[in-house]
Each structure stands twice: as C-alpha cells, then as structure tokens.
Amino acid sequence: xxxxxxxxxxxxxxxxxxxxxxxxxxxxxxxxxxxxxxxxxxxxxxxxxxxxxxxxxxxxxxxxxxxxxxxxxxxxxxxxxxxxxxxxxxxxxxxxxxxxxxxxxxxxxx
Length: 110
Known about the structure:
single chain
C-alpha cells in the first residue's frame, strides 16, 4: 500500500528545503512505522505537493532513504526524551499552566 500526504507550497522547487525545515523526515518515518505496525503496509509514503499559487502545479515526491533513517534516529531520541519526562514527571518548558491569549487593540475589530 501507499501512504499519501497532501501538502501545499508556494514554491514547488523549494519543497525539499521546506520538508527539512518542518521535519517531514520525522513525520514520514513515524507514519511508515505506524502503517507497518498497524496494517502491515510496507510503504512508500508519497508527498503530493500542490502549488498554492497559479498555475497550481502538482509535484509528487518521496523521502530519500538517508532522510528517512535520519527521521527514525530523531524519532527514537525524541521518544526517549518523552519517556524520561513521563518517568520523572518533569516537563521542560518556558511556559507553565494555562495562559490567556491577549490581542493588541489594533488587532481587535471595531
């Protein structure tokens, strides 16, 4: 089976840069692992990238093997960190509790 992920982009030529910026290698590795565990599906995962500006072209891409392996390593590290947070009940963050969203006066409609 094939896993599809539809993305939009203003620059199809620069999608690989965006994929790196947003960590799509981690996402692809996670989805592929889940599809294997839950359904026995053995990929691939395709990104269907649709231009959000005219002429609205479409580009189909697949994550490279080295990139997927990097995503797997990153995911393992992040899951280990998450397990440690659960174990110690210590959640490192600059933000605590529930905060109220406040707009500036000019952002509020009259």
